[in-house]
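The pair is quoted verbatim as follows:
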Amino acid sequence: MKNTIAVLALSSFFVFSACKKTESNNINETEAAAPEKFTVDSVKISDSTKLSDSLTVKYTSKMLLFPTVKDKKLLDSIYFTEKNIGDFSREGVLNYLQKSKNIYFNRLRKDSKDWISDISFSQEWYSDTAMKVKSNTNDYLQIEYFWASYEGGAHDNYGYSERVFDLQNNKKLELKDITSMPKEKLEALLMKNINRTNSGTIDEKGEVNNSEMLLVDKIPATENFYFDDKNLYFHYSPYEITAFAAGDITIPISWSELKGTLTPEFIKRMKIK
């Protein structure tokens, strides 16, 4: 009888151990299968140098880092403004920015030799670039790229680029991935909606409509777009479609205006009704 009890007890122990081992293996497998959490980091450098008593030059640049993005083709697309990064690690991007800064300073130092003595009053020239995440919704990563510079003249210059990246399919999103509407019809909607978001420009008569400052007969439907749960937005830099005084212009097109042309996948992922 005692031997029977001992055998039963030992059997129960092995069964219990086997269950615990199986449970432990299942936990490890589950943890290994869990996707890596999407993260965003950044690096920034800011430096200045004096080319003469009258001229100071400043360089500032901020670039985003995406440690969890491993697809090189997607990373090349994300850093489309910078063609020779190669190393997308923190150290690699920081080294790239340091080289870009030195190239900028050396270029102005070389170019200024013939005319720098003609500068009779104190000036600060600069180059400023930055990246900013506008949103990351439904695996659509939207990034805004900004640049501004001044190298003499009446005023500085600046501009924006908008890009959307499909993290599920590791690619840059294009207009055709959102809507099948022909560009001619999109451009008609852009012209129709030009004054929906005013630039804030005023003159002696008061507020000036964007349409009054147009430099083009047709507003192009470019790949410089982004979106939210209500609209598709096209972003235009100064001089692109309007006078500099208008600043940058953003024109919305609502999802209802694009009804019947939105792609099924986009409707599903953005939960558009």
Residues 1-24 have pLDDT under 50 and may be disordered.
